[in-house]
Write a structure and sequence with these properties.
Strand order of the largest sheet: 7-6-5-8-2-1-9-10
Structural class: alpha+beta
CATH architecture of the largest domain: 3-Layer(aba) Sandwich
Largest sheet: 8 strands, mixed
Strand content: 15-25%
Bound molecules: ligand 28F
Number of strands: 26
């Protein structure tokens, strides 16, 4: 991307970029911050905060404060050295003016060391300035307080001046995102808070706080032993097999810091970072880590006689069950390379060898010091391998049955769709037989299939795959979708373009949603990443103006309050407690008809958040879970799992089988 290209380019290339000025950023904001929705909006914060974190990495800043102001502007305060306040002869501008209003200025002065090159593209504060209505900088330095201000996308509105004396040092920036640029301008406390927590976990000893002036909320993060805390955080309620194992080392100027642990769970959680930036697609450091683990644990298992000569070596799949690990590397700027669009994957080839070496050296030593724990890990791998073999057999059995034609029990109570266009077809997973019945008669049979689910869905987080496959609801889902599961899952075989979870709008319904999402997340992840999973939103109210024959539906308390405020006439309100209170026509009209229904598309916002959310939801502490769901599920779950309301009107061309009918004929 732009930032990497720049590194290889000559000074004159840079000058060309400089000449482009901040207009370039305003013309194509997506190029610099990814998008102009909520995600892009929050990128502004990361860009600014990452500069403070760079200053902390350089060893000069110990505290960062982030404030969401009442007007939805952001203030970031650090106690670093303060941006240099001299004059740049070449540019004929003050240094702060250069730093904040010239594109890519930061990198040129970058020098050695590990710059985090914050944010998505590492282009820094000038991009934030370009996309802000106002941008005010205060620098405490050399015994003085200095100020400089910009407005309307980086236009200097008040040149650098000394406004007083001060013994402090540091930089403060306040910026107000430009409403002309962003479709969303309201900051989320939760999103910022989680990201800052992650930064604090990755930078031990650094104090980072967030304060929300809109609602008097604040949190402060500081972790003395960040990575160990990080692992504990990820472990949640899971029972431990090993306490955190710390692996640290440095070779070829690449700094490696890994913490890993095994739990009694079955899933794997691996997070990786390069220069403090999350690498969600992994890369060479992760490959090196896995190779190192496989090598050390196989050697150990041989030495201990757990693996005999005739036995097959463990592969990384055998060793990943129950593993949680955070792999971080700091790579000098001259070696850093990313692959993929969004810096999601580390490409630096040296990192692979370096991480592998550090891991094998350190683990070999650790395993001789901790033989009993080492044995526990390896024995877990033996079990994992055996379970996998069992699961493979179970899956084979399902496949055999599939080729023989599905038996009734394999499909549960599925009512199939008549149309054959898999992409248009929709599978409704409906809570309870009675709502299932209404859905069945209300549906448009051409493209809608109904699978009623009885009772509670099993918790995929806590169940071995072999046992999962014995569960009737789960096998009915797997067979209805028809695309296998786990490693065998192949989304191109899926029988449906949309899978729609339809539950009551209460705690139980929310719990069923999360259980289903957990299952999909663990065993059919692509359905989520490819955005095939939806949640149906039934209305909460039916409203009939007095004396009128007409009625309409409202979906939220807010909508109702709004209506009551704006219309003074008398109305009759029916509150739906569950899907079962609607008849088939009403269910079709409000919740299933593509032209009028409201669907929420489930997308994974952030791996860490999702992992944590699932752990909170699926952990042993039922009380905690209940609280969490009651507080969060309806709409605010979106902070963890991004629920994206969609406008379907363009998508509903059911031309394949003729016109869409109004169902209600079954
Ligand atoms: C609220 C956001 O942006 N903090 C920053 C510094 C400190 C230095 C710096 C920043 C060096 C020459 C380009 C100070 N003294 N917080 C921040 N703190 N930038 S940004 O230097 C910028 C480069 O010009 C700094 C000595 N060296 C560096």
């Amino acid at each position: 991307m732009a930032a990497e290209a720049k590194k290889k380019s000559t000074y004159s290339d840079d000058s060309i970029q400089v000449l482009e000025g901040l207009d370039a950023v305003r013309k194509r904001p997506g190029m610099y911050i990814g998008s102009t929705d909520g995600r892009g909006l929050h990128h502004l914060v990361w860009e600014i905060v990452d500069n403070s974190i760079d200053e902390a990495l350089a060893g000069y800043c110990t505290e960062i404060r982030v404030i969401i102001e009442k007007n939805n502007s952001i203030t970031v305060i650090d106690n670093g050295r303060g941006v240099p306040v001299g004059y740049n002869k070449q540019m004929k501008k003050s240094t702060p003016e250069v730093i904040f209003s010239v594109l890519h200025a930061g990198g040129k002065f970058g020098g050695d060391g590990y710059k985090t090159s914050g944010g998505l593209h590492g282009v820094g504060s000038s991009v934030v300035n370009a996309l802000s209505k106002t941008f005010d900088v205060t620098v405490y330095r050399d015994g003085k307080k200095h100020e400089i201000s910009f407005k309307d996308g980086g236009k200097l509105s008040s040149d650098l001046k000394v406004v007083g004396n001060s013994l402090k040092t540091g930089t403060t920036i306040n910026f107000l995102p430009d409403k002309k640029i962003f479709s969303e301008t309201v900051f989320s406390f939760h999103t910022i808070s989680e990201r800052l927590k992650e930064s604090a976990l990755l930078n031990s000893g650094l104090k980072i706080s967030i304060e929300d002036k809109r609602k008097d909320k604040s949190i402060e993060y500081v972790f003395e032993d960040g990575l160990v805390e990080f692992i504990k955080e990820l472990r949640g309620d899971a029972k431990e097999v090993t306490s955190p194992i710390i692996i640290k080392g440095k070779e070829q100027e690449i700094d490696v810091e890994i913490v890993m642990a095994y739990t009694e769970e079955y899933s794997e959680t691996l997070l990786s970072f390069a220069n403090n930036v999350k690498t969600s697609e992994g890369g060479t450091h992760v490959t090196g880590f896995k190779t190192g683990i496989v090598k050390s644990l196989n050697d150990f298992a041989k030495k201990e006689g757990i693996l005999k000569d005739k036995d097959k070596r463990f592969d990384s799949n055998d060793l990943k069950e129950g593993m949680i690990a955070v792999v971080t590397v700091k790579v000098p700027e001259k070696l850093i390379q990313y692959e993929g669009q969004t810096k999601g994957k580390l490409g630096t080839s040296e990192a692979r060898y370096v991480v592998e070496k550090v891991v094998t050296d350190r683990l070999e030593w650790w395993l001789t010091e901790n033989r009993p724990v080492g044995k526990k890990i390896v024995e877990k791998a033996v079990l994992a391998r055996r379970a996998k073999e069992e699961a493979r057999k179970a899956r084979q059995a399902i496949r055999d049955q599939k080729t023989k034609g599905k038996s009734k029990s394999m499909l549960g109570k599925l009512t199939v769709a008549q149309g054959r266009n898999k992409l248009l077809n929709e599978l409704f997973l409906v809570e309870g037989d009675s709502a299932g019945g209404s859905a069945k008669s209300g549906r448009d049979r051409k493209f809608q299939a109904i699978l009623p689910l009885r009772g509670k869905v099993i918790n995929a987080e806590k169940t071995k795959i072999a046992d999962l496959l014995k569960n009737e609801e789960i096998t009915a889902i797997i067979n209805s979708i028809g695309a296998g599961l786990g490693q065998d899952f192949d989304i191109s075989d899926a029988n449906y373009g949309k899978i729609i979870i339809m539950t009551d709008a209460d705690t139980d319904g929310a719990h069923i949603q999360t259980l289903l999402l957990t299952f999909f997340f663990r065993y059919m992840k692509e359905l989520i990443t490819e955005k095939k999973i939806y949640i149906a939103l039934p209305p909460l109210f039916k409203v009939t103006p007095s004396g009128s024959k007409n009625f309409f539906y409202l979906w939220t308390e807010d909508e109702l309050a709004d209506y009551v405020r704006k219309n003074k006439n008398k109305i009759e309100i029916q509150r739906y407690k569950g899907l079962g209170e609607m008849n088939a026509d009403q269910l079709w009209e409000t919740t299933m008809d593509p032209l009028t229904r409201k669907l929420i598309r489930v997308t994974i916002n952030d791996a860490l958040l999702a992992e944590n959310a699932f752990r909170t939801l699926m952990g042993d502490k039922a009380e905690k879970r209940k609280e969490w769901i009651e507080e969060n599920v309806k709409f605010t779950l979106e902070d963890n799992i991004e629920f994206e309301p969609i406008d379907e009107t363009d998508e509903v061309l059911i031309t394949d089988e003729g016109e869409s009918n109004n169902g209600a004929e079954d």
